[in-house]
Structures are given as C-alpha cells and as structure tokens.
Amino acid sequence: MSTTTSNQPAPGADSPAPEVSGAEIVFDDVVKTYPGQSAPAVNSLSLTVPAGEIVMFIGPSGCGKTTTLKMINRLHDPTSGTITIGGEDIRSKDATALRRTIGYVIQGGSLFPHMTVAENIALVPGLLKWDKDRIHSRVEDLLELVGLDSSRYRDRYPKELSGGQQQRVGVARGLAADPPVLLMDEPFGAVDPITRQRLQDELMSIQDELQKTIVCVTHDIDEAVKLGDRILLLGEGAKIAQYDTPQNILANPANEFVEDFVGAGSSLKQLSLSRVDDLDLQSPVIASVGDEGRTAAEAARAAGQRDVIVLDARRRPAGWYSLGEATRMGRLPAESDADISVVDRRATINDALDSMLASSHGGVLVTGRRDEFLGVVTFEAVTDHIRAAHEDTPS
Ligand code: ADP
Ligand code: MG
Fold first, then answer.
1. Where in 24-101 does DSSP place strands (E)?
2. CATH at 384
C-alpha cells in the first residue's frame, strides 16, 4: 500500500503499527451476472456489515456466497451496484492495492508449497515493503497469535504441517498486514471436527484482541451460530432470507426456508450458543513440567483428583496423566499437544462434549487468552447444564 491509496496511516517503519480495527462494509444494490449466464449469481444485494463484527454467510450451494465474498476484494467486479469499505468505494483503488488491505483465507490455507511458514506469512508485508526487522517481529507475533511455536514451525514447509496447522498459518498470513477486513471462505471445511473446533476457538480469541470486520462463508449452521455476531442466510441469487443475530435466527426464523435451513432440534442448537464460560470450572491442584511425578501424584490424590494436570512455564496445558502414569514417570514430561483435551473458554458446550468424548479423562481442560489454563470442565457439569437448558426451553 502506498501513501496515496488509503486514508489509513501508512505502515512505514517510522510510524508505530496502526491500531486498526475493522471497517464497515456496505453493499448497495449489487448485482453480479457472469458472462454467458442469464440469471444473476447475485441479484440486487444490499447489506451492511458493521465494523468489528463477524458476519457468517450461509446458504445452499450455488446461492452466491463465494461470488459475494470475492466482490469485496475485487476478485470479481459487480455488474452493477456499489460496495464501500470504510465509506470508500472499492473501485476508487487499484484492485491489487485493495487486496493487500484485505485478508483472504480459504480452505486449506492455500499456502505456497515452496515457501516456509515464515515466508508465507511475510508475503504481503514484503510486498508492502516493510523493513526486515518489522516483518520478522510481525511473523513471530502472528505465529504466537495462532498458537504455533515459532522455533518449531517458522522454517517448515507447508507439507511438513498438519491440515489444522496449515490452516492456522493461512489465518496468520491473512492477518499479516493488519488488514481492517478479513474474508474467509469455508476456512475450516477441510479439517477434522476437533481441529475445526480449536481453529474456531482460536479465531474467536484472535477477534477478541483485534476486532476486525470478518466475513466468513460456511456451510455449517453450528459454525455460523458459534462464530457469528450476525448470520446472513441467503437463498438462490443471494436473496437475503434473514440477516440477524444467531439468537434471533434460532428463536424467530423469518420464514419456512430459514426454519428448514436451521433444522429441527433448534433447542439443542441453542447449546451452540452456550459457552464453556457459562459452566462452573473446577480448579484442580496442578503440577509443572519437570516436577517429580510421584510427588505430583500424591498431591493430586490428597486433593481427591484422579489425575495430574501439568502446565508449562507459561501456564499452558502440557500434560494430563493418570495418578499411576504420573507416579511411574519420574520427572513429568510435556506431551505433544494433540494428546491433551483442551477447549477455549469460548468454545460451545457442544464442542466441549465432543472433546470429552474423544478423550479418556471424563472432562476437558479450559484455556483462556494465549492458551493459559483456567480450569477443568467435567462431564457432569456439561450434562447438568444440558438438563437445565432443556427444562428452561419450552418445546
Ligand atoms: P456458493 O459459494 O454459494 O456455493 P457461488 O458464488 O460459487 O456460490 O456461485 C453462484 C452461482 O454462480 C452458481 O450458479 C455458480 O455456478 C455460478 N458461478 C460461480 N462462479 C462462476 C464463474 N466464474 N463463471 C460463471 N458462473 C459462475
Ligand atoms: Mg462457495
């Protein structure tokens, strides 16, 4: 971005990184008809995406979600109508310059295979001619933000990462130049359910810090309910069926189409509105990596626990062992994080349940900002909550 393309401060080395929050996006009577097609893919869409919110686009396949998204960063241009970002018509900028101010994350992360993780993330800052030191520290910050240990991952190539890790790098790359707007097209569609849930949690915690305007396409109503400040439910030709908060869409579907789309059992879906935060967390006795296993097991047993929870130096979960395992271990090691069942405090009750069913501990560890350990949610706490929710929901 040059100083002439935007009313934001230019991200030069001499100015501090701007505190960019999101920018409002407005569609005014936007039509997109692809060449050679009679019916428009997007027909007269008018819509305001408020600054700093996450809006989830959902609707049947082919209804125009991707087309709508791609008009925001001018991968497609509307046939008619206008789109503004932060009050500025997007046609007033060169399309390439515009795209450097809008993060774009698609399924699989779409990383360049011949570039390392660090090089992939540094791509846009490099194009914007940030100086080397600034790029280096930005890459370090972003890796931390998306939960990847820089010393382990920055020099790896994409094929040396799991699908979930690649997706994390994709998110980091999308955020690299601190864009006010982040576009995501089914970003978590290709990963397994537990990884997807962690990535969603990650995104919510990132959004807590950054307050971007995020437009995210999904085909998963639970994901829309979980992540969205608002949900845009579209029908054929990107006709708005309902644009509202998750709560209102679940409680007051505007018409039969919405009702069908949201699906039966929406009282169960309300569980996607409840967060782990709403439950009582238990605060067990904890141990640190490197503690004597036997001593830690004795302390846990004395506190009435059936296992030993181990944290690293930054209070992130590093191990979760039965009393027997811990006793036999000598000094407590750190496990690979894949083996510990962890959810973010903003995870939904459904997520917590899924994680528990995949773990052998009858509970799940809850973390907050920057993965810091907050406590344990037990299976009983979840089932109690579900029971209470059902008693409160008239059916
Ligand atoms: P969604 O993302 O909701 O599945 P799309 O925006 O990809 O929907 O597609 C909307 C409609 O536009 C579909 O009928 C699709 O076939 C058509 N379409 C999408 N991209 C193109 C293109 N590049 N050229 C012609 N038609 C397209
Ligand atoms: Mg699509």
1. 25-32, 42-49, 54-58, 80-85, 88-89
2. 3.10.580.10
SS3 content of the chain, % helix, strand, coil (to 5): 40, 25, 40
Per the domain annotation, does 8 fall within a domain? no
Each residue of 364-391: pLDDT tens digit?
Answer: 999 988 889 999 998 888 878 877 766 6
Any idea what the CATH number is for the domain that residue 138 is in? Answer: 3.40.50.300
Cα(297) to ligand 1 centroid in Å equals 58
Q: Which H, E and C letters describe 90-151, residue by residue?
A: HHHCCHHHHHCCEEEEECCCCCCCCCCHHHHHCHHHHHCCCCHHHHHHHHHHHHHHCCCCHH
Residue 338 belongs to domain spanning: 277-389
Which ligand 1 atom is the nearest neighbour of the CA of 70? Answer: 6
Residue 32 Cβ inside 6 Å of ligand 1? The answer reads no
Ligand nearest, relative to CA of residue 106: 2
Q: For ligand 1, is residue 333 a contact (CB within 6 Å)?
A: no
Q: Of the residues 249, 272, 295, which one is the last residue of a structural domain?
A: 272
Task: Say if residue 3's pLDDT is above 70.
Answer: no
Closest CA to 180 of 215, 217, 131, 230: 215
Structure tokens at 246: 């998750």
Q: Which ligand has the minimum distance to the alpha carbon of residue 107?
A: 2
Would you say the CB of residue 233 lies under 6 angstroms from ligand 1? no
pTM of this prediction?
0.77
The answer to whether 365 and 373 have CB atoms below 8 angstroms apart is yes
The torsion defined by the Cα of 194, 195, 198 and 203, in degrees rounded to 10, comes to -140
How far is the C-alpha of 157 from the C-alpha of 141, rounded, in Å?
Answer: 19
Q: Which two tokens stand for residue 83?
A: 């789109």
Kindly tell me if the per-residue pLDDT of 173 is higher than 80. Answer: yes
- If one counts the domains in the chain, the total is 2
